[in-house]
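[step 3/7] fold_predict: job queued, chain A
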Amino acid sequence: MSSRTSRRIPTLPSWLPLDPYILALIGTVALAALLPASGAAADVASGASTGAVALLFFLYGARLSTAEALEGLKHWRLHLTVLACTFVAFPLLGLASHGLVPYVLTPQLQDGFLFLCLVPSTIQSSIAFTSMARGNVPAAICAGSFSSLAGILLTPLLAALVLGGGTGGFSADSLVKIVLQLLVPFLAGQLLRRWVGGFVARHKKVLGYVDRGSILLVVYTAFSEGVVGGIWHQVTPVRLGALMAAEAVLLALMLSLSWYGAKRLGFGRADRIAIQFAGSKKSLAAGLPMASVLFGAHASLAVLPLMLFHQMQLMVCAVIAKRRSRDPLPESQEVSQVPVTVG
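[step 4/7] structure written:
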């Protein structure tokens, strides 16, 4: 591997800092706790949040290249394996978490724990860690993209199926909102991609800030509703510690299942790395907007497990990727490296 290629492989410092975006999310939660939107301000924030969610999914549709997605289908066994991890194994473990109520998790936190098990995989960080570990980067790109695309349909359907009406967020009206706020903007982005795709590609960095700013707005609205509703007394430090312990077990199980399961299925080292990183992660960017639509006023507690899991997976996968990067490569393995960043 040339020195020029090596410089393009993303690296992390020896100590693991808190993701800057997580700091922004924590700051947003703190702002909602100190200055929650209420009354007319809450109505304005809610309307802006709804528009932000629609914009997010429009941009998702405008970015996704249909031709690249179809080309990626050639590696269908790998993609099916990642989808099985994301939308079969994860949800089954989430359902098993019912046994943790009420001794470890409250019913509300368990709903959030189950919801995080239903959201799609990440794209950016899966690619970054796969590249760091010298795995199959093109496969990670396609697997993450397919997972995100499938999640637009599967996550709301699975949530309606396994969470039911107990949270107060699922009804015929809610399904209509899901279609209007998530699916319609996404399809509009796909249909208009021919005309807006170039603009989106040229302004990728700026629109990335729009993405993250929109998600921060969603978080502020959700946590403001939680503060005004007086629900935060349910999350004691002990409960928070128990939630983090349960999530650590969940992540360890999925990292092990994706790695050793891929080996049993006959995948090589490079493919196993892509499967492990794409199959063990959950997308904060996709999950937060979905939660705001699915849970409504109950979204604050629903997204807390996902926010904690996101930071945990980044830190743990960074350690694994660094360790895998030192593994000797088989002579026959040729790995594509792309310039990516962790996020």
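[step 5/7] annotate
The longest helix spans residues 237-264.
The radius of gyration is 20 Å.
exit 0
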